[in-house]
Structure to design on (193 residues):
């Protein structure tokens, strides 16, 4: 399987965010499979609340941050979205970051990773994301990777505390890579519109 370029879109800007550990784990798993993950962190990009989508700016006039993300997304083979759960939904920073783009996501696989500090592992945010990402033109893979008690599940570098985690998540990553590769090949022959 050829190397895949995969933006790992993380969604929290909270001061004491521990979910970034799950994003680091995702990055490490993709690298271990020979792929090229790129962390997209709303703290680093600091985009304001959306007024204009990227496509609504006149050509060449979008802010530099949006141009860079658009270039990355157009080159991407698939997306991993890592989200906590806020009030049974997704964090506002994640929704804001995602909503700036649309066509750049089309016909690409999306893997959903959710987490929480409790036992439900952000499951309800995952269901919301499945709907959102599909509406944005991504093909969400059937599996989700959900992390309960995220603060105890990984250290700060994303190393799992339970050695069985890699085995639990293997099918998720294998499925994502299969879908991302299959859709990349299909896009070479054109897309429906």
């Amino acid at each position: 399987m050829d190397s895949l370029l995969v933006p790992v879109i993380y969604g929290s800007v909270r001061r004491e965010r521990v979910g970034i550990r799950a994003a680091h784990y995702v990055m490490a798993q993709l690298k271990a499979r020979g792929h090229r993950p790129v962390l997209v962190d709303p703290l680093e990009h600091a985009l304001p609340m959306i007024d204009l989508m990227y496509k609504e700016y006149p050509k060449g006039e979008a802010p530099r941050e949006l141009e860079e993300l658009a270039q990355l997304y157009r080159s991407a083979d698939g997306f991993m979205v890592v989200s906590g759960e806020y009030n049974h939904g997704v964090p506002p920073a994640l929704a804001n970051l995602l909503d700036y783009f649309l066509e750049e996501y089309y016909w690409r696989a999306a893997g959903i990773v959710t987490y929480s500090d409790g036992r439900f592992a952000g499951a309800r945010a995952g269901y919301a994301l499945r709907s959102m990402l599909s509406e944005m033109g991504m093909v969400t893979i059937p599996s989700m990777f959900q992390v309960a008690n995220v603060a105890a599940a990984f250290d700060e570098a994303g190393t799992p505390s339970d050695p069985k985690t890699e085995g639990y998540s293997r099918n998720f990553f294998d499925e994502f890579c299969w879908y991302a590769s299959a859709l990349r090949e299909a896009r070479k022959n054109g897309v429906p519109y």
In short: The longest strand covers residues 138-147. Strands lie at 5-10, 36-40, 78-83, 108-115, 138-147. The two ends are 27 Å apart (CA to CA).
